[in-house]
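Worked example

This section walks through a single chain of length 56. The input is the sequence exactly as stored; nothing has been trimmed or padded.
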Amino acid sequence: MGWISNIIAGLVGSAIGEALLGHWGPQLAGTAIIPSLIGAIIVVAVVSFFLMRSSK
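Given that input, the structure is written out below as tokens.
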């Protein structure tokens, strides 16, 4: 996956993570940092896994 795809997946994951996990922990510019990071990491990992499997 290219870096632009990773950025897009990270932003989508951040929004999903904050929506599912809530607005707890420290906030930066109105966004909860910890739930956003968790969501972004999970979405980027899942998307990378599926794209790697489909290319083989």
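What to look for: Helices lie at 3-21, 33-55.
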